[in-house]
């Protein structure tokens, strides 16, 4: 038995209130007060993981070191806490049911009828306590996805009720995040949606301990009193969460409102030590006081939904702060680009990032963009599919292999410069079968990547099936596209670059997943630095 304390974060009224940011901000404050904290996300949908979801559904699929394909909130957790998450930090209804059904098939329920209560709820509680039982954490924060009142959230709310009953109010608390809307016509903030949402929670037997209320206007004392009275909490437990200029302001705002203090009080933990936010605030000050601006083009096929590239845009913010530069993103739809209009659409950019992706939609646009920045000495970072497009572009336009392509895009290719990986050839299922998670990569000294990492052995996260075809390596290298990062075990090429270009780097892995506020990713920092130099020309 260990003394891990549990904090649950539920959401009411509407989705998109930012439960992930509130959870991450609270965790940050507790961490900087000296507690060891982790955050977990429970997603009520039936997919086993978001790996098979189109980014338009839920935004980016985030990948952990241990190769879990997860919700993008885990990216926020890592960026705020600066510690890695794992498969245990993201659980879906699909995964819960899958393990209960597997147990049933093995006969583990000994002839019992398998039911939502207790079998599904027990499995949910197990998944929550797996993190606590490691003994690594003083506090586990569990964010329940979705909105209270949804049919699919019910088993989760019931699991929370049971855990509170079992562990006691001093070991498990519930923070309910709601919206207090402002009605312009009435000139008033309205508490009724929050009252209703708390009532819904109470119908399931859960009484929130703390309310965090999102609002566009200051919530005054009399409204706080009203919310407290009707929602059965103390006035000091009603915390306002006003709109912030950046998500990275939220830890400070929550500290000001006393969220971490009331949480610690309720959990009967000491709040004597104040959070140490110097490094965090140093980042904020660099972020908010840039001395220059660079404009980076982001070419992708999901640009309509910026959340599809969440980790990339956050990595720009971290790297921008490191260079004390504002990074302005020009969103460019890959399908809108052609060799004829590339010069026009990319005019004035200080750098170009070609994004990850799957399938052939928009790839000719990506290739046209790579050609333009290669020929015009504009800094370039290609990530995963973006790197593959750079190899194709070089093969076509420098090596003269006109029909070069990836076997992902066309069959029976004369020049498959990007090829399905050997280990992928017998794979038939789509879910969880890519080359995933952290792999080592050896870096050649005297390269742009070495300059960035200042190390000859790195580990980065992957998510792909196709890979640089080593049959073309000799030709490509001789023509000037160097392979500067290689997986030591498999010989797979992980990075390519053009030494004669100011900054042209393609990486098969995803550096964006490992960029955090306190550890901006070295490759992004170098890329933005190169863009800054370009902007001075
Ligand atoms: N579709 C490519 C592959 O599977 C690239 C994947 C990606 O960009 N994440 O190899």
Summarize the entry for a quick read.
The chain has 537 residues and is an alpha/beta fold. The chain is built from 18 helices and 23 strands.
What does this protein structure show overall?
- This protein has 537 residues and is of the alpha/beta class.
- Helix content is 36%, strand content 22%.
- The protein contains 18 helices and 23 strands.
- The strands form 5 sheets. A 9-stranded mixed sheet has the order 13-12-14-15-23-22-21-18-19, sandwiched between helices. The chain has a 7-stranded parallel sheet with strand order 5-2-6-1-7-10-11, sandwiched between helices.
- The protein is globular.
- The structure holds glutamine.
- Glutamine binds at residues 356-358, 384-385, 408, 463-466.
Bound molecules: glutamine
- Count the beta strands: 23
Query: Biggest sheet, in brief?
Result: 9 strands, mixed
DSSP helix fraction: 25-40%
What fraction strand? 15-25%
Radius of gyration: 25 Å
Task: Trace the largest sheet across and list its strands.
Answer: 13-12-14-15-23-22-21-18-19
Look at the helices and sheets and give the structural class: alpha/beta
Number of helices: 18
Average pLDDT taken over every residue: 96
Low-confidence parts, pLDDT < 50 over ≥5 residues?
Answer: none
Shape summary:
globular
Give the end-to-end Cα distance, rounded to a whole number of Å: 63 Å
């Amino acid at each position: 038995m260990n003394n891990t304390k549990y904090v649950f974060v539920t959401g009411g009224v509407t989705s998109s209130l930012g439960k992930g940011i509130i959870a991450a901000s609270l965790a940050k404050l507790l961490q900087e007060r000296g507690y060891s904290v982790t955050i977990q996300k429970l997603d009520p949908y039936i997919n086993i993981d978001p790996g098979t979801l189109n980014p338009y559904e839920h935004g980016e699929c985030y990948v952990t070191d241990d190769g879990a394909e997860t919700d993008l909130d885990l990216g926020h957790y890592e960026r705020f806490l600066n510690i890695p998450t794992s498969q245990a930090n993201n659980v879906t209804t699909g995964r819960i049911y899958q393990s209960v059904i597997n147990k049933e098939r093995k006969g583990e329920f000994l002839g019992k009828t398998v039911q939502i209560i207790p079998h599904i709820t027990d499995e949910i509680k197990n998944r929550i306590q797996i993190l606590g039982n490691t003994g690594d954490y003083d506090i586990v924060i569990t964010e329940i996805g979705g909105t209270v009142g949804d049919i699919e959230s019910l088993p989760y709310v019931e699991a929370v009720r049971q855990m509170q009953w079992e562990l006691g109010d001093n070991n498990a608390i519930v923070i309910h995040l709601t919206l207090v809307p402002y009605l312009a016509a009435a000139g008033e903030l309205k508490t009724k949606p929050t009252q209703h949402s708390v009532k819904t929670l109470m119908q399931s037997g859960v009484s929130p301990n703390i309310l965090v209320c999102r609002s566009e206007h200051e919530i005054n004392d009399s409204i706080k009193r009203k919310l407290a009275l009707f929602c059965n909490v103390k006035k000091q437990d009603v915390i306002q969460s006003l709109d912030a200029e950046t998500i990275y302001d939220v830890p400070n705002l929550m500290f000001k409102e006393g969220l971490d203090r009331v949480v610690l009080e309720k959990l009967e933990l000491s709040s004597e030590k104040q959070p140490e936010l110097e490094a965090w605030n140093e980042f904020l000050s660099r972020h908010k006081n840039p001395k220059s601006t660079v404009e980076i083009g982001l070419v992708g096929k999901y640009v309509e939904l910026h959340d599809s590239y969440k980790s990339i845009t956050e990595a720009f913010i971290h790297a921008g702060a490191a260079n004390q530069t504002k990074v302005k993103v020009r969103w460019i739809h890959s399908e809108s680009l052609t060799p004829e209009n590339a010069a026009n659409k990319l005019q004035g950019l200080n750098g170009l990032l070609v994004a990850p992706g799957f399938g052939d939609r928009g790839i000719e646009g990506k290739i046209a963009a790579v050609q333009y920045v290669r020929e015009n000495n504009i800094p370039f970072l290609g990530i995963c599919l973006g790197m593959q497009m750079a190899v194709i572009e070089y093969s076509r336009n420098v090596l003269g292999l006109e029909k070069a392509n990836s076997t992902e895009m066309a069959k029976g290719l004369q020049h498959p410069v990007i090829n399905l990986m050997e280990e992928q050839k017998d794979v038939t299922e789509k879910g969880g079968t890519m080359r995933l998670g952290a792999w080592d990569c050896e870096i050649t000294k005297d390269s742009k990547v070495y300059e960035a990492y200042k190390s000859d052995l790195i580990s980065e996260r992957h998510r792909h099936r196709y890979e640089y075809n080593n049959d073309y390596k000799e030709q490509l290298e001789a023509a000037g596209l160097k392979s500067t990062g290689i997986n030591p075990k498999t010989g797979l090429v992980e990075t390519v670059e053009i030494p004669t270009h100011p900054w042209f780097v393609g990486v098969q892995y995803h550096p964006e997943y490992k960029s955090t506020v306190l550890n901006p990713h070295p490759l992004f920092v170098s890329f933005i630095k190169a863009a800054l130099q370009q902007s001075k020309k």
